[in-house]
Amino acid sequence: MNKKVFNWISVLYTTLIFLFLYVPIFVVIVYSFNASKSNAIWAGFTLDWYGKLFDDTNVMIAFKNSLIIAVSSTIISSVIGTLGAIGLYKYKFRGKSIVDMLLNIVIVIPEIIMGISLLIYFAQLNVPFGITTLVLSHATFCIPFVLIVVRARFAGFDSSIEDAAMDLGANRFKVFTSIILPLILPGILSGAMLAFALSFDDVIINFFVSGSESTTLPIKIFSMLKFGLSPEINALCTIMLIFIFILIIVSQGIRFKRQDKNLN
User: Membrane-spanning residues where (predicted)?
Assistant: First the structure.
């Protein structure tokens, strides 16, 4: 009896957690199709808000800026983070623990402090604020996340496999492409997705290092909220959610495909 009660409590607790997480998202999606401008009442189904959203040139420019910044910073942080993870795993050097500590500091430091420091840094170098400063800033705070995710893939890796491959005549490039890269590829993809998500929805750092011609989508949404929550914002959030869900589905599909391939 006690076990049944415990199971019911566990199911109820899990259900409440998921409802707490996903009901607000569901409400945003539903009210993006609301014919009324007010989010308090349902006045019928409509797609007019999506039409108005796509007709808004400023929103489309902000979305394009966010996409360019997120993709660019993801590529940079994925390459540097992957190389850093490989280097920290394969090589031992004096000060390695200090490097680890510095990487963790970037993760735990308040984002507003990083935003201010980057603002001062670029101002001292007389770098014009815009897409370039945003890409560099986003890549800076995304690199440690990618590095930690990729480095975790090396846990339990038997380095003797590399030695065996080299004994059989494989050079270092062949060992990397045939052994190391397939091993860490899921970590690279996971780190890249994390970097993309962090970059795409960042607000604080964007606020400090963006220029007048480089408004990003989160900043645009934040400015629109000052005039009240309209269904147009709900439509914009729904499109962002769909975009993120597609990325998650694609990444999971790639991961399952690789797992099936390894099992076969």
Answer: 12-33, 67-89, 101-123, 129-154, 175-200, 233-254
Radius of gyration for the alpha carbons in the chain, expressed in angstroms and rounded: 23
Which one-letter DSSP state was computed for residue 127?
P
Q: How many domains does the chain fold into?
A: 1
What would the two tokens of residue 186 be?
Answer: 């899921």
59 CB-near residues (< 8 Å, 6+ apart): 53, 217, 220, 236
Residue pair 31/40 in contact (Cβ under 8 Å)? The answer is no
Question: What is 229-258 written as a DSSP string?
Answer: --HHHHHHHHHHHHHHHHHHHHHHHHHHHH
Are the beta carbons of 214 and 130 closer than 8 angstroms?
Answer: yes
Domain that holds residue 84: 59-263
Secondary-structure percent of the chain, ordered helix, strand, coil, rounded to 5: 80, 0, 20
**pTM of the shown model:** 0.80
Residue 166 lies in a domain: yes
In the beta sheet, which residues pair with residue 45?
34
174 lies in some domain: yes
Determine, yes or no, domain membership for 10: no
CATH number of domain containing 123: 1.10.3720.10
In order along its 264 residues, the chain shows pLDDT tens digits of: 577 777 788 888 999 999 998 888 888 888 888 887 776 677 788 888 888 888 888 888 888 898 899 999 999 999 999 988 888 887 777 877 788 788 878 888 888 888 899 999 898 988 888 899 999 999 988 999 999 888 888 776 777 777 777 777 777 777 777 878 878 888 888 888 889 888 988 888 988 888 877 888 888 888 877 776 677 778 888 887 887 788 778 777 776 776 666 555
Bridge partners of residue 34, in order along the sequence: 45
Judge whether 34 lies within some domain.
no
